[in-house]
Structure formats: structure tokens, C-alpha cells
């Protein structure tokens, strides 16, 4: 955890539970050391999740469908009925989000274009079952399984917001033949993707608050202790300004939205909904997946057989615009749309939801 260098390796990660097997026995360390090892493993072990519908768990109130591994995803439909839709969209929400999030396109445009949209609680969020083996690949598989369970056809569109865009990158890597088109709004980046120049990544990483730097460092190098780390109140710095909603937001609209949502209780309600099955399987596993060691570098992906669009505000206080520009420069097949004077909360930009749909489907206003 203490390493300060930026590890550039790319490898797969699957789940982050530790075994409580004795440590050090037979190695001359003695029973006391073995007991200490067991205690340390128990100390960093995250609490068990409380799945919806389980004894003592939250109730199931949303429609749900079954995934290939037996888990259930909760979802919310909007737009026109899927039976009459011309376009079908699966939406992947961001950090702290839920199935209720969407592009916020106007009903008139959705009707005009014939758009059916379905949002879902990503694994461990809201009322979707946790997945201890969650990864970028399983995020893409969940979208595919959801589309198949709802009968959306051989091809469908995918849209992601913020951290939820890791599922879109995963779809372009693992199921490109199923994707009719993809849109990413302010997609979060992983500072350890090999395609970033080391100096550029280190510079942007270093501009974050020190507590955020350490939270990402732990998520990348030691994901198994992320819950323990985030829950330590004695640390001299906040463990993550993003988690506690204190990140500096240079854009005035972003700052005002946060003030309003804090005052009226919206942020508290969103957190309660997102984390009702446990903060480990929602927020903290999100951090481990997004900032952990990926199996592929998005900047090394081949051109997919579908259009890909990316929207980014130039005053985003959460995702460095310099890194987003680098991604767009490396991937000539990404249609990059930079929004001047705009921050991170793109769903609040007037008319942008309609623009995204029209652009994604190649329709003119």
C-alpha cells in the first residue's frame, strides 16, 4: 500500500475476499505470529452483504431478472414500449447512482425517435444482488444478460455515465458484436491504464486531494483492504472526498447542484438507496473494479463495429479533461464531444440528453 510509484501492469482481478487461514505456521514464526495474522485478516475482512429478500435484508420492490450465474438485477424501464421501439438502450449508472438514472431525454424526443431505455442497479447497488467476483468483464456480461432477459434483440445500444462507463468499455472489449452503438458521458479514467504517458498520468493524479490519492492507491494495489481503509476515522485526511461529497468542483453548475442536493436530502437518499445491501459491495467494490488492474487497456482496443461517442466537460472536477483528450487522440474511432464551460454532472446540462440520443442514432434535430 505504501508504494508511491504508478504501477503500469495490466492483469485480471476477481473478487477481493481474504481467506482466514493460519499465517506463518511451520515457518518458525510461532503460534503468536499465526494468531496475529489471523486477527489481521479478520480485521480487514469486509462485513457480509445483506442481499435484498434475504432474512434481515432490504425488501424487493423493483422488477428483477436473472443473470447467467444466478444473480438478479433490478431494472427500471422508460421511453416507448420495447415492442414498438426502433432503438433500445441499456444505461449504466455512475458512482452512487441507481436504476432510476437515465439520460433525462425529453419524452417528446424519446417518442419521436422511438427509444426504449432500461436502467439497472449495477451488481451490489440498490436491489441488484452483490457479485464478489465483479469485474469489468462481468459488468459487460450483466448488460448483455439484462438485454437478453428483456428480449431486446441481437443488438442494442449502451450508454454509461461517469464510473459506470467501465461497463461500456467492457462491452466494447468483450461483446462488441452485440453493440449497435455506444455513448459515454464524463467517463472516469484509471490512472494506471498503460496507454497514458507516465508523466501525464502522474501530473493529473497528483492534482487530487491527498486522501483521494491514497484511496485510489489502495484500490489499485491492495483492493482486499479497501473497506478497512475507507472506514478508518483516525486517518488524518479524508479517505475519499468523492465518497463524502466534498471534492472541489470548479464548475458553478456542479457546485450549485451539490449544494441543492445536499440541502434537500437528495444526496442522502441516493446514498441510502445505493448502499442498502452494504457499502462494500456498492461503493468500495466500484473503486476496486474501476481503479484496479484491468485485463485490457481501452486505448489498445481495436475499432468496434459500431459508432462510439464520448462527451466530456472542460471544467470537470472529477475526471481530468487532459486525460480524456489523450484517450480521444489515441482512439481515432471515438467521436469526441468536449463541452466548454461544463462540469461533471452532464445529466443537468439542458437538452444534452436529447442531443446524445440524436447523435447516437444518427438523427438530425
From TrEMBL:
Query: What residue stretches are annotated with the AB hydrolase-1 domain?
Result: 89-346
Name it.
AB hydrolase-1 domain-containing protein
For this protein's source organism, the top of the classification is: Eukaryota, Viridiplantae, Streptophyta, Embryophyta, Tracheophyta
Pfam families xrefs: Abhydrolase_1
Top-rank taxon, per record: Eukaryota
